[in-house]
Amino acid sequence: xxxxWGRANSxxxxxxxxxxxxxxxxxxxxxxxxxxxxxxxADYLAMNPNGRVPTLIDKDxxxxxxxxxxxxxxxxxxxxxxxxxxxxxxxxxxxxWLDWTLSTxxxxxxxxxxxxxRTPAEQRDVATLExxxxxxxxxxxxxxxxxxxxxxxxxxxxxxGDIALGTYARRWFGLEGVELPDLPALAxxxxxxAVRAAFQRHIAVPLS
Amino acid sequence: xxxxxYAWNTPNARKISVALEEMAVPYAVEPVxxxxxxxxxxxFLKISPNNKIPVIVDPRSADGKPISVFxxxxxxxxxxxxSGQFLPTDVRKRTSVLEWLMWQVGxxxxxxxxxxxxxxxxxxxxxRYGLKRFSDETRRLYGVLDLQLGRSEFIAxxxxxxxxxxxxxxxxxxxxxxxxxxxxxxxxWYSSLMARPRVQRGFEIKLx
Lengths: 208, 208
Fold this sequence. Notes:
Number of domains of chain B: 2
CATH class of the largest domain in chain B: Mainly Alpha
Structural class of chain A: alpha+beta
Helix content of chain B: 40-55%
Order of helices and strands of chain B: EHEHEEHHHHHHH
Oligomer: heterodimer
Number of strands of chain B: 4
């Protein structure tokens, strides 16, 4: 049985929960991070010196960094699935999206998410929020164009690329109090991933 | 927001429960007792003008509004579009899936279905003619399927809704008097599908 350390409302933890569900991998989840603490304790830092969530424990193998956990689980348990294509160009293209979520999307969407979901309205910096919202909107618009001719983000099959992007997309489509730009290809792709049982179980939970 | 599957424990309904399990799309079963004629009730006729099961109701179609779908072939196409799975976008691959889906709907359902019907008749004169006619045709169809499965791992290339459609009826091969060992490629294909956990769940879930 896998052990996953991390609170269920963390976008990076959710990526891992989603993939475990897709692969029917049983797991124990231990709350850690934010109000749960644990992640700065000595025993946690001994396994994850980076002190963040998620951390995966698979028997005597410990792995942290959510995108790397996705890759590991797909390689180790995703055998005959297409979750992490074997073909180098397709795999590299999937990896590109995992990297892009970290390099570009996450930093841009985090400020908007924190402002709208974790900050009381009266404490929000409206001017900064508007600018940040337009920035992250531009990133989603780029993705919308890319998805125009595609059913899944890469290749002909649902992959860990769709998982990484999908967990962030849930946060985008779940924002309240803002008018989202009309991005039809993104919306169609989102409907397709949101119908999946694994998404409904771990990702469709209320934002917090 | 779950799809409802109106069903009974029949080949055409099993096609859909198997497809839903393989697509990992959540659903709820509403049994319609066809042994008691429940499929003729006026409320059911509104969503099933041909008085048959299966029918699905999706509370949220692509346009955001509820939709009902009758005819198992149409249901398979609807679910494939909704989930983006088991129906390729490439024109040649897609056409192949549609060829075999239509083959199943037009022949490899109605013909063995008639064998089931005539086998149970008491009047020996009526029984003998109908049984011979439809048994011969059913065996011919299994032969066609065997040849196709000698050319292709699954019926139309990769696993698709054509496989789910045919499997629903191949499941009842004993009832229409077919020994799968007479059709080695069908036997291979059948065993490999029945070994899949999601297919097993699709056949185990209670539809009555």
